[in-house]
Amino acid sequence: MKVSVVKETAPGERRVALVPEAVAKLRSAGLEVLVQSGAGDGAWHTDDSYADAGATVVSRADALAADVMLMVGKPDTAAVSVLRPGQVVIGLLAPLTDPDLAAALAAAGVTAVSMDMIPRTLPRAQPMDALSSQANIAGYKAALLGATQFGRFFPLLITAAGTARPAKVLVLGTGVAGLQAIGTARRLGAVVSAYDVRPETRTEAESVGASFIELASVGPAAGEGGYARALTEDERMAQQEELAGHIARHDVVITTAQVPGRRPPLLVTEDALKSMAPGSVVVDMGASTLGGNVAGSVPGKTVLTENGVAIIGASGLPSSMAAAASAMYARNISALLLYLVSEGELALDRDDELQAGVIVSTGGAIVHPALTAAASHPPHAGTASSPGPSDQSSDQPDEGATRVVPGSAR
Ligand code: NAD
Predict the structure, then answer these.
(1) Looking at residue 262, what is its pLDDT?
(2) Which of these, 49, 65, 52, 126, lies nearest to 335 by C-alpha position?
(3) Active site includes 129?
(4) Strands 56-58 and 32-36
(5) Strand pairing report for 111-114 and 359-362
(6) Closest Cα to atom 42 of ligand 1
(7) What is the Å distance from ligand 1's center to 298 Cα?
(8) Using one digit for the tens of pLDDT, what is the confidence trace for 137-158?
(9) pLDDT for 68-115, tens place per residue?
(10) Are 248 and 275 in contact (CB under 8 A)?
(11) How far apart are CA 350 and CA 71, in angstroms?
């Protein structure tokens, strides 16, 4: 069976689905590996390094003709137009926020397998959890961006020229990315506080060195599948107001808050920004075209407020560390591919919980229950249904909206 690595075409995307190190493992499972020429360039892997690892370097047309295509993101329209029935595409397809792509792949008779739909709580799915691997990278990079932008030291420094106090960093949202941001800021010597609306995250945040902030005005808000639920309007306002007092006391704020199927919640308001000291930095990992966790953040840009606070719209962070992100993603996608293969051939079994979680379309039809359910109960306007790392462009939370958590709708 021919498995190919297709070069990513999304603007700014530098990652590649397989690194050379992963090629040998797939070959030893009886798979022939094709790599589109130049696919690894953005992650510093040359065609020669893939050839040395046992892959065949091919044209884009040949890569798109393989039995199974491995991608980081989604196939572009031109790629979809040349696919034939029976081919398999595996990538972060975000089918719940991009149902048109899922429909196009189904219409082409393609078996679409989405990495962002992996049931994350299944122990055997852990090595395949690309949302976690990429969020880890994003959290690390967010802390570094904050430290680089901040015009003072993160650690306590005692020198002949004076003493620098350690920076005070606040991390809002302590999921996978937030915990990595805390650990990274701590390793740089900052004093770190953290807050999350799920109280069970307290011990996790403390275990990586943060002091946990509890808000008196907002109760616990755990939702389904280990994620947070959307807050009510009253809870949101109370949270924003109480958080503002904490934000004002910090030098660097890193926001990572997400709610599946919703626009990222606004945690840092304009008033909170006004209360920060000049030279403070806010890194918004939720930045999206419709707004993020921070008022006025612009994805991919750093904006300076009138009172001298830098807001970094931190989007595309995993791609900015393409070598590390690709190495981790390659392990995730190889683990999933090998799980789907038996004796060198695909052995799809939709009775298997993990496989049912990731297979979006096959045999000319959309088969994922989350998509078929969403089609019969369309979400309200302004909501989305997937928390994929690069798909955060839903609208403000809508209390009656359909919510779909990856891996939960089986
Ligand atoms: P995420 O990206 O959906 O959200 C990031 C964080 O934002 C979450 O911790 C969430 O509680 C928080 N948040 C949402 N709204 C908020 C608000 N208004 N105020 C403050 N914080 C808010 O989450 P994630 O990092 O993908 O993971 C979420 C959970 O899933 C974590 O508990 C993680 O450990 C768990 N998880 C479990 C497994 C597993 O069981 N193997 C695998 C991966 C993730």
Answers:
(1) 77
(2) 126
(3) yes
(4) parallel
(5) antiparallel
(6) 120
(7) 23
(8) 999 999 999 999 999 999 999 9
(9) 999 999 999 999 999 999 999 999 999 988 999 999 999 999 999 999
(10) yes
(11) 22
Question: CA-based angle 408:103:259, to the nearest 5?
Answer: 35
Tell me the per-residue pLDDT of 326-381, one tens digit each, with 9 for 90 and over: 999 999 999 999 999 999 899 999 999 999 999 999 999 999 998 887 666 654 43
Residue with tokens 């009656």: 400
337, containing H or E segment: helix 322-340
Closest C-alpha to ligand 1, atom 33: 175
Kindly state the tokens that stand for 151.
């015009």
Residue 48: partners with Cβ closer than 8 Å, 6 or more residues away? none
CA angle, 286 then 292 then 293, to 5°: 80
**Which amino acid appears at position 300 of this protein?**
G
97 to 295, 296, 325, 367, 398: CA distances (angstroms): 23, 24, 23, 16, 16
Active site residue 386: no
Q: How far apart are CA 107 and CA 111, in angstroms?
A: 10
